[in-house]
Please model this.
Amino acid sequence: MTADWSPLWLSLRVALLVSVLALVVAPWPAWLLARRNWPAVTLLARFLASVPAVIVASLAAPALTCPLAVAAGLVRAVPYTLAACRTAFQSLNPGFVKAARMTGASGWRIFRTLALPLDGGAALAAAAEVFAETMLEVAVALWIGGRLSVPPAGAILLTALAGNALALWLRREAAVVPARQAGR
Amino acid sequence: MTSIRVKKRVSDAFALEVDFSLGAGITALIGPPGAGKTLLLEVVAGLATPDEGRILLDDAILFDGQARVDLPPVRRGCGYVSQADSLFPHRTLRQNLEFAARRFPRLERHRRVAESIEHFALVPAAALRPADAGPAERLRCSIARALIGGPGLLLADDAGIDEALFGLIGAHFRGPILMAARDFDLACAAASEMALLDRGHIVQRGVPRQLLDQPATVEVARLAGYENLWQGTIATLDRAANQSRLEFGGFALTVPYLPGHLRGDSVWVAIRAAAVRARRADSPPAPNVIPAELVRAAERAQSVRLEFAGPIVAELSLSQFAGLGDNKNWLLELPGESLRVMP
Model:
């Protein structure tokens, strides 16, 4: 008997799509949020990022198709990435921003030329975490639906582990770079 | 004319409220940490918005609270060198300059960057990132970056610019400079005018020498580094003899007549430690000579600092101290011409 590997491909596809979309969508609003305080938005992002994965998974479980799973994953992934990026951008040296403003750089340009190159590592780390977490979420949903056998479940777990390892490594790199930037 | 009249309330305890005009040359803004020096510079640069007031640079309005004019930083024509190193760490020194010159057309931008690199002796370091360049090169690059747009006013926030560097700036930039500093020596050497900022207000301004020699208030005297500051009361006022007698806790001093004061008024007297003279106990009595008990003597590189009960601080040259050092009983002369009396 050969195992049905389609759950692995489905979770891989969903996790990749979710993390890439979160990476595309979240950093710019995170930059805007980092520079001024909108408590309502921050609260909403915090709340959505903390919705338990099982709830999202079981809501999506009965008819788990790729688009539906991606949409369900984004509900948590975007606020999570946004919060992570916001924290990273808040640590950007305000002197850099002032120096850039003195030269007439727009908010978008400061984001593109300073915030992303200097603190983009945190966004990548968050995306890797989102990837790992979404893999597991999809697996849980498939498990609840009774569509997951043991071999693909093991493969999914291993991939999620790899994603978390990547996130850890990226996070360490992101922490090392600012220390180097501080100069002597 | 360049003038700055602004109010900005930061908290219940602190508000910036200044009104002054800026002459040509270098104006040094001196004050303790937290006096509002950086805030004032940022308000002029357009990085912070005042609550009200008006800022003029060469008669152009940069900010007017009533008319709701608030030009963005880039249109104010101010160059700003911040206190901390703020070169972009992921770009080379040349790229930092290019970033600042981006608004110019390509050829003009290249010309400006090349000239700045040449003028500020950055040729060997231009291809280095800030972390790999030396602190002096980073500072010169920060200045070059602030000047590359051809500003009409340079704002320097306690960036560690020394006299030689001001000379280099002067060869390249003719406009006025407003610099925040904590260092009186540098302000005296480089600045043509000095303004003392304390708790958001300018407490005195003038030529550096005058400010140091004639402090108007006790705060200024404190900032100007007067080691001896005593509060006392006026015991007698004698206009005919041009004399006033001031009484302190343990001693009394005679100073010239103090116009505009009444007997019983409380005044402050300041004298620099270096102006206090020490005498042998057996020397003849004289005005403003008081006995004092030595508490501590600390040797410095070129002098000896003596602390007496009172407290009175005196600074003697090594040779003077050697001549008097075995003295148990000290007499201190506080020369009338070195005493500064303030309300």
Remarks:
- The radius of gyration of chain A is 18 Å.
- Chain A has a mean pLDDT of 83.
- The first helix of chain A runs from residue 6 to 25.
